[in-house]
Amino acid sequence: MASSFLSLPLFNSGPHRFDAGPAGRLTTAPFRGSNFVPATRDDAVLELTITQTGRLVAASEAALWTLYDAIRAVAEGVTAGTLVDHSGRSWASMRLVSFDAAGPVDRGRAFSLGYRCVYRRFA
Fold first, then answer.
1. In whole angstroms, what is the distance from residue 116 CA to residue 84 CA?
2. What is the largest CA-CA distance in the chain?
3. How many H helices and E strands in the chain?
4. Rounded to the nearest 5°, which phi and psi values hold at 73?
5. Per residue in 21-44, pLDDT tens?
6. What DSSP state is assigned to residue 24?
7. Rounded to two decimals, what is the model's pTM?
8. CA-based Rg of the chain, rounded to a whole angstrom?
9. Concatenated DSSP letters for 66-123?
């Protein structure tokens, strides 16, 4: 099964994987209250964060930069949508908040570029 974000197959040109971030509560600890007693404050539920790493692969350098530009346009937007991984697991209301190219373009039989993306569900 192919992965997608906003129903777009942006990353299916090459291998990639997903990693769910920590789940739980956001706390501030320890701090001292007015009576100087250390205390931990429970602030909120942690926002869901999904990290995706992989490689974009294309037959030409121009095609590789076309893929890059399409992903960059989504990352610079503010649209939330559904993220679907290879196995069909989906996360609703996610935003692609960063897209980082990892290193230079590799040239061989194909052109490829490593990347790291971060998706976040804002509370």
1. 16
2. 68
3. 1, 8
4. -60, -40
5. 988 988 887 766 667 777 788 888
6. S
7. 0.84
8. 19
9. HHHHHHHHHHTS---EEEE-TTS-EEEEEEEEEEEEEEEEEESSSEEEEEEEEEEE--
